[in-house]
Amino acid sequence: MSSPRPSTLGDLRAALESRHVTRRPVRDEVRANLVARLHSGDPLFPGIIGYDETVIPQIVNAILSRHNFILLGLRGQAKSRILRALTGLLDEAVPVVAGCEIHDDPLAPLCAGCRGRARREGDALPVAWLPREARYVEKLATPDVTIADMIGDLDPIKAARSGLDLADELTMHYGLLPRANRGIFAINELPDLAGKIQVGLFNILQEGDVQIKGYPVRLPLDVLMVFSANPEDYTARGKIITPLKDRIGSEIRTHYPATRHQAMAITQQEAWLERGSVQVPPFVREAVEEVAFQARGDQKVDRRSGVSQRLPISLLENVVSNAERRALLARETLVVPRITDIYAALPAITGKFELEYEGELRGADNVARDIIRAAVGVVFNGHFANADLRQVTEWFDLGGSLQIDDALPAAELLARSGEVQGLRELAAATGVPGNAPGPLLAAAVDFVLEGLYAQKKISRSAEFEYGSAEPVRRPSPRSVQADPLVEREIPNVGGKKKYYN
Fold first, then answer.
1. Count of the separate structural domains present in the chain
2. Co-location of 217 and 286 in the same domain
3. What 8-state DSSP symbol labels residue 190?
4. How confident is residue 454, by pLDDT bands cut at 50, 70 and 90?
5. Euclidean distance between CA atoms 106 and 156, whole angstroms
6. Choice between 59 and 153, residue whose per-residue pLDDT is larger
7. Whole-number average pLDDT of the chain
8. Which of 111, 116, 129, 459 shows the greatest Cβ crowding within 10 Å of its Cβ?
């Protein structure tokens, strides 16, 4: 059983002397705990995937250098999550003066109130213990943030109630930054902070202290400053002023997952899928993830804005929900998403990217459908690059057609698709065995059909009716000529269509 923590200044001094421990600044504390974790081989930032060879080594270097640092990256690149994970490198708890607003160290208090209490109470000064979770302060930068919010201001009400002169240090109201003393202070979206407020951070970054209002007092705060920013916002909404950038020790660039495997691991970790008997086929997971990769490379999507990793997370949740709705209506016990469920989940896609002018003309829904089709084509090619698809495509070329939709029960889909020669054999090549449950077999069949459509080997209408990819010749509406010509469909000025031989 561990001994109780000291509750007074005298007990704290005795405990530190017996253990030969000296007080250390926050950046030294974080550095020492990082070194210990590197020696032990424990994960540095649990839950952060895809940064092991890129971002994390740079963060380690910044911490070992005792730097304040900034994470630059597009939206959805785990910047805030990384900053919050830094609390894991703090001690479990640190001693503070009980009741102090800025968590003063009992051995070296900063504020006038705690210094006065230390003189009056001596070794009997009460000591509290601040847990690591309470030592992290985060502020989202917005244009309306004031210097009083960040640093502090005088408090006339406090002065009146205490009968103090406004020049007295005890009348100060501390802002967020002083309240983060002995911990980590994070500012998200730094460019959105007004320039004059950024100037107010100069002292804490360079000299390690802040000055509140016009008081002739300086508070040498002990704080690790970390920031996040979207580099593309520098010209859109604001910018980080050059003197502030110069005072930030390290600038670290984040990025989107480099591989589909890494992206799938992130989505699997973050998406909410715990809702009964749900089984997501691997090819559906791959297609969902590939949607984000295709969107990031699409010329109709604004690359400067980025496509957040939240897109595949929200998309997969919506895809499973559509499958769940179908299973509930069909009274199926197993929920298995299909590729067609991705098309039903457009609301989870269209709000996750910004469009270029060409994309605006085409429309968000149409752009999203094009992206889905391209993603399915890439995944299908990965599964069937060397497969013989002729038997299925020839069935459609000979006039066969197949009508299905995302609400069709598994048994009905399998019954309708049973006429298509070679379709069930191709479905088995996805890894779904022939004796698998009906919803799984239906998902595999649906994947093959959508894959053939994505690669333009068969056609599909908006109502999910599959047919031949070859154009169908139509007889002339007037008469059959001896020398038939290919019929053309030409729109006239009025918007109606006329057929010509």
1. 2
2. no
3. G
4. very high
5. 28
6. 59
7. 87
8. 111
- Among 215, 187, 188, 214, smallest CA distance to 201 is for 187
Report yes or no on 118 lying in a domain. Answer: no
CATH at residue 235: 3.40.50.300
In this structure, the answer to whether residues 248 and 280 fall within a common structural domain is no
pLDDT tens digits for 44-84? Answer: 999 999 999 999 999 999 999 999 999 999 989 999 999 99
Residues 447 and 380 sit within 8 Å (Cβ to Cβ): yes
List CB contacts of 294: < 8 A, sequence separation 6 or more: 371, 374, 375, 378
- Which residue bears the tokens 């974790």? 37
Helix (H, G, I), strand (E, B) or coil at 14: helix
Looking at residues 380-391, what average pLDDT do you find?
Answer: 93
Point out the domain boundary residue: 253, 268, 301: 253
What gap in Å lies between CA 351 and CA 365, rounded to an integer? 10
The reply to whether 227 and 310 lie within a common domain is no
User: Are residue 227 and residue 277 in the same domain, yes or no?
Assistant: no
Q: Tell whether 294 and 219 lie within a shared domain.
A: no
List the structure tokens of 457: 């080997």
CB 262 within 8 A of CB 240: no
Across the strands, what pairs with 29?
none
Mean pLDDT of 413-442: 92
**Residues 285, 341 within the same domain:** yes
Closest to 225 in 3D by CA, of 184, 266, 260: 184
- Measured CA distances, 308 to 75, 143, 229, 256, 349 (Å): 5, 24, 14, 8, 10
Same domain assignment for residues 268 and 222: no
**Domain shared by 279 and 299, yes or no:** yes
